User: Fold these one by one.
Assistant:
Number 1:
Amino acid sequence: MRYVRLLGIFYKYSFLSELEYRVEFLANVFMNVFWLAWAIVSVAIFFLHTDRLGDWSWPEVLMVVALFTLFSGVMEALLRPNVGAVLDQIRDGTFDFVLTKPVNAQFIASLRNIVIWRLSDVIIGLALIVYALRQMDIVPTMGQIALFVLMLFAATAIVYSLWLMMVSLAFWFVKLDNFTELFYGFYEAGRYPVTIYRGIIRAVLTFVVPIAFVTTFPASALLGRIDQTTTMIGFALAIGLFVISNRVWTFALKHYSSASS
Amino acid sequence: MTIQVEHLCKYYQVHQKEPGLIGSVKSFVKRKYADVKAVDDVSFHIDAGEIVGFLGPNGAGKTTTLKVLSGLLYPTSGSARVLGFTPSERRKEYLSKITLVMGQKQQLNWDLPAIETFLVNAAIYEIPDAQFKSTLDELTELLELKPLLNKQVRKLSLGERMKCELAAALLHRPQVLFLDEPTIGLDVTMQTKIRQFITEYNERHRATIILTSHYMADVTALCRRVIVIDHGRMLYDGDLHALAEKIAPHKLIRVEFSETLNGHRLEEYGEVVKTRGQRAELLVPRDATSGVAARMLAELPIADVTIEEPPIEQVITRGFEEAARARAERGESDEDEGEED
């Protein structure tokens, strides 16, 4: 309960500090629209030559693009300004202030900030999903929608946990920017349905860096073309990674060396 | 007893790099690690309400000790207990009773007025509204914060920001304060104000305070007791003035002559620090002081003479310089120990 109240306060002040920069706010909305257009174009280009990508039709692929956009919103609004910012805080030493507060450090480090305008991506993504479903004349059942929402949460948990483990490494190695870039590289691969990849790459994207669970599988859930095993693996992966990342984080804290003043 | 530190050690593993490109490549491929003894077998006890100054040159281990005490770092060995807690466990009850202020790092939100950060801290520390209001009023009065509270932090001057940082760190009325260079970069007036505030806060709340500072004036003004650390080792723990006597090899003789000197060379009596008109100041080896003074009285036209301790700041600064020189002569380098900057 206390933590819920804290969240409210954190987000209020996060929002307030963003309002300080009105021009940046507008520029960012403009950027979002641009990136969405780019995401659609980069997929549409294939459909100039073919009607199907793997076994996915144009509106179905559009669903994956929509999820890619939606999840970019989640990442940029909630993950990058928090777990992503820990790296900088460790380097400039302000992480000390997180650790000296009488609140769970993982909680502050993971949820302290929100970049509210980035949630516009979530809305744009959802709108695109509705549009794609209309194109196919599909109306998902309540069950499919519920599963879709759950899979989104699982996806968030998966990406969050991977990121947290990566950040934990920074307690030893301090400078890890390239690592974050590598992660973004993998995430980029998620803009296409994972089934268009073959062999090893597909296995990597499903199990090693499980981007498939972030875009492809939630889309499949809405389209009613996901099997139970995949769903279960997704949830197991989310819970498992979450628990492991928490352990890694706790262990890493003991090795924190705090940048000198 | 508020703070108990027994045989505390904190070693870092630091990779060593030879200079130049080849050295960099070598260290990229295979790293040689060396233990850096940032804190090496340090023990001390501090009672409630004491203000203790940590003295030592850069990289002596002062900051590392403060970080261990505030729970940021796990000690390599030895133990630290503060208010009955083990800091490194970072228990909620412990963290809400202490505070760490670092002159070079800030917790205030850059884009918002300081008051907003205060409100966030009030929520984090679960400060009841009434207490928050009275504490804020008190801090506002002591630090003259009124005109600053509603300005964006990025628009404040360095000194104004430091005052707000102090307030943010003290809203929860901590019993133990760890102040790391709280006056760094501030002008003299602001330094004095911060010092007055620390004294005032200590007297009002019986808070226990450990302070590190590069400015000797901070330490001489605030602390009766000092702990001297150099290269991770504790060199001295006790009264500030006793320290000066112990490490100052000289005394200061101040003389006033009844007529202008000619023919007499003052250098014969000791190291001349200053001459102005008919006055002069000389540094004389401690043991020889009375002999030299007697000789001067006999041989020179003296109107007045006083024998004093040299200024404490000068003494301590010199002490560290001499220690560094002695180490250099023994062939120990200064760089392979201590924390990185």
Note: The interface with chain B takes residues 2, 5-6, 9-10, 13, 16-17, 20-21, 92-94, 96-97, 99-103, 105, 254-258, 260-261 of chain A (CB under 8 Å).
Number 2:
Amino acid sequence: MNATQQLQDIFAAALSIPAAQVTNELSYQSIPEWDSVSHIYLITELEAAFNISIDTEEVLEMSSVEKVKETLRKHQIAID
Amino acid sequence: MMRLYDLIAANPQLVYVDPATGQHFRVTDLTHTLDIEPRRGLAFLYIDNSIAAIEALLNFLDSPFTIALLSPKLNITYKQQLEQLYRPCYIYDPSRTTVEGFEATTRLFRNSTQSDYSIHPDIKVLLSTSGTTGSPKFVKLSEDNLVQNALSIIDYLPIQHHDVTPLTLPVFYSYGLSVLTTNSMAGGQVVCTSRDVVQKEFWEDFTRYGYTSIAGVPYVYEMLHRIGFCKKEYASLRYMTQAGGRLSPVLAKTFGEYTAARDKQFFIMYGQTEATARMAYLPPEALLSKAGSIGLPIKNGRFDISPDTQELVYTGPNVFGGYATGLAGLQTFDHNPVLHTGDMAEKDAEGYYYITGRMKRFVKLFGTRVNLDEVEAILKNALNGGTVACIGVEDKYLLVQHLGTLDGSAIKQLLSEKLQLHVSAFRIQQVDEILLTPNGKVDYTAMQQVGLAEKV
């Protein structure tokens, strides 16, 4: 499974939403499922899955699927 | 006895700030702005922390109406069920454009049918005990409850007229409401925001307005810790408060040391919605020497420990007037100042109280109270009578033990939907047998040992 697909699955599981709903435009607090609780859970899952450490500034920047992808790319993860 | 609204309106320094637009409002700018008939009745307010929601709340506080404060994120089915049961005269809910049986007026829905039931004159506010599950069970609070509890809190918190206080907790939740009432009465600027600590915008507002305090449930402190709060400096911050469940000893120490080293104060507090909000607080100077304590009773409050059961019993003017689970419950208000907290406690030689256990079976998850017997009932119902047992582990997660071959992730999904809590709040364990006591009941104490041993 490539990293893009893996990211899609992690998002869907962390927010408890169908994978099809995970689009680049989806943003924090735009749906009830993406609240602070699922956000922190998402970060923890991303760190475990990609074996990276996400720092404070990055957590605050990760306010949409697109921005999460940008952050992962900075960590050398190959995301489309 | 002055009304809560009168005490708020009497604060000459009070300004409500809308960080979305940067606009400032006096309390008089935010009242008499909605068309509310001058009579008694019930209003349902589905409010977030936006300036528009606070405006609706202030309008109704300055009216004879009884106000039910509800989460705007409640599932629409739950909203409709509650409205059919209680038949409110007004609904404030910006998320809907129409409500059947109601006429849309300016920012409100008015019931097309005149209400045909009376409400006890002492009931001013109704708060939900669960928040998210749409339970029809409300805590009945009077003007006197709200005012007395706010005054007791103002007595120990360093609230000042030049404060800038963000509403970091939902105001439909008792702790969040107390932040609003106390700072409206004795503070300065109240920033009406639903932004939270994992958003960049929250920290931009923090700097822009110079926030002087942060209020949080244990989960907020976990998030603050996760985002590296203690690695930075916040010159404007004077104090922090925590309530809504037990904070882990590690975090209590971390934030206690961080604040003490910078001449700031950290208040660990104890309360319940049934006591309007607050019953006790730990003075910041005792935070490290009395670790794990809930502290001392608030002004005008008293604790007793029941000699037979060790139950902590609170007496004070902020104790609620009973529950309402339907219209009949709105006819009465019990003036009984004694509250059986359901927590067991000890008192040390210097008068500090410590919670040692719980008599009622519930767990607090992300600040939300979850009744464990109800969870078992939900599961047994959904699983066609399969054997399950539930406990809460340190207000961190809910542990479900089951026999047989149930799908763990399906159980998590079901509980997440029913309780409106994130799946990470649940852990599922398959066991060969559910431990029983000699008289054949589930041995929750033994389960608790397993739960603690399992902890990572």
Note: The helical segments of chain A are 3-15, 36-50, 56-61, 65-74.
